[in-house]
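Posting here for the record, re: zinc ion.
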Amino acid sequence: MPDRVGNQPVIDDEEVLVGIRKWVEVETPSPDGDAVNRLVDIVQSDAVALGMQIARIPGRDGYGDILTVRSPWGGDGPGILVLCHLDTVHAVGVLEKDNPYRREGDRVYGPGIFDMKSGAYLAFYAFQHLVRAGLKTTLPITFLYVPEEEIGSPTSRQMIEDTARQNKYVLVTEPAHGGLCCTARKGVLHAGIKIHGRPAHAGSRHQDGRSALRELARHIVALEDLTDYERGITVNVGLASGGSFINVVPAEAEAKVCIRAPETSMLDELRDHVLSLQPIGPDVTLEITAEINRPVFPRGPGTVQLFKHAKEICREVGFELDERHSGGGSDGNFTAALGIPTLDGLGADGHGHHTLDEYILFSSLAPRARMWVRLFESLT
Ligand SMILES: [Zn+2]
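Prediction output follows.
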């Protein structure tokens, strides 16, 4: 098979799928650093085989290692950063039981295949295509593989931001929902509320008790009422617990809250609001934490320019690339918030991320691989 027809790369999509399968069949739940490192080993040895420069930082807090892989050309100057995560939300064993690797028509199933092993592999494959064809890009290319994006990147955030600052563009290999890439994402605020009440016998001394659960319930309703779909604000109390026994007035209760908003000012306002919550009932105390987990990914001018360029490239390789504003966060939030042109959602097309039946569309692999090759070649 020739490498090119005109300026268009020729892609063997069956070969691409073989590579994706290899990555999917190493299960990598974020909290299991050893499991994630088994895939880091594979990516590292594949990259070494292509002559790439490797830097690997040992994992912290039980998470896997952080792997940086750089093209052998282009020197130390600013270039293209390809941002990938190797972890998934699926526990070890899902591959065997709930979502085995399989191909049904155009759909290819497997844990983490859509989010984001196919995307991460597509970008790697495109790089390999260049090396095999003896081609070099104008800009150096750096791949950063992080081990715990699905947890919010607690151990890799600093590295992501530092590496992004050394580059001109950031391309993120998150999945492409409905073929759309992502040029903006909401910011995410995580809050925790703990209520301390007063225990009492639920029958004989009920009037002496101060129910922490009752207090929490009122805050939950008030918080969720802050949801405003028109302004793009969502408040989700995702976890709540409390009490110790059915016939004891509950002395303790707590909840965890995920708040999302499209603008930094809204997120700041919501954080201040949560931090200033006061007890509603008598004789209870509140303990509140609130921090921005992912900053807003703004649709900045550099990102818009990068999107326009990618759109042209995609037209040449045979598909229409459109953009969307996502409610979900990614590591792209960190880099876009620094003002670095960031294009996200450049992985394979498919469906069902974070579910037990996620899949990719095989037909999206060849056009997307061509897009990656042409993006690498054309960015200056
Ligand atoms: Zn992802």
